[in-house]
User: Which sequence fits this backbone?
């Protein structure tokens, strides 16, 4: 277990705590955690898609902070819900893109667990966009993604990352419950 895993874990826990509280400061901690995590995933765990995902998260942290800071517009600050049609479309596109990326990666890179890494990465990107746009479904996606990451990190030697995936799963439940209450109050 490296020092970088410890730093990424501490910042990740702080990020998820503030995200479940619907606080924009979460994105600062998320950006730092993701930068550390990207290095660890790429160089030490050989999870290329996960490393790219973490770099994506750094950029999304800026986007999320900007989007959440536009507090004068209820469209950007209120929690929203996707309808069934959009949920199904997102799932189908996520699966197709993930498998296409895995096939490409296997042709050009030495990477561990290409299909499952690509699938979790693809759906993590989707869930991150939903979080930044404040769609409650982001927490449901995380409830499926995080347990898979527990396995990936555990078998790859990312013990702390596996443990934080357990915490993320619990926090996704909390985030969903908290956001559901807020959604109900504003409806």
Assistant:
């Amino acid at each position: 277990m490296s020092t970088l895993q410890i730093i990424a874990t501490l910042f990740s826990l702080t990020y998820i705590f503030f995200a479940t509280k619907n606080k924009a400061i979460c994105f600062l901690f998320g950006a730092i955690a993701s930068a550390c995590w990207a290095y660890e995933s790429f160089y030490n765990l050989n999870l290329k898609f996960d490393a790219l995902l973490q770099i994506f998260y750094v950029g999304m942290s800026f986007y999320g902070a900007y989007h959440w800071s536009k507090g004068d517009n209820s469209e950007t600050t209120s929690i929203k819900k996707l309808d069934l049609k959009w949920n199904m479309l997102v799932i189908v596109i996520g699966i197709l893109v993930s498998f296409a990326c895995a096939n490409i990666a296997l042709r050009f890179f030495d990477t561990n667990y290409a299909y499952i890494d690509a699938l979790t990465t693809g759906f993590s990107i989707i869930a991150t966009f939903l979080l930044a746009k404040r769609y409650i479904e982001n927490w449901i996606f995380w409830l499926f993604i995080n347990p898979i990451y527990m396995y990936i990190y555990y078998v790859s030697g990312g013990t702390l990352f596996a443990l934080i995936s357990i915490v993320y799963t619990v926090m996704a439940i909390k985030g969903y419950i908290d956001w559901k209450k807020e959604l109900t109050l504003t409806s």
In short: Residues 3-186 form one domain.
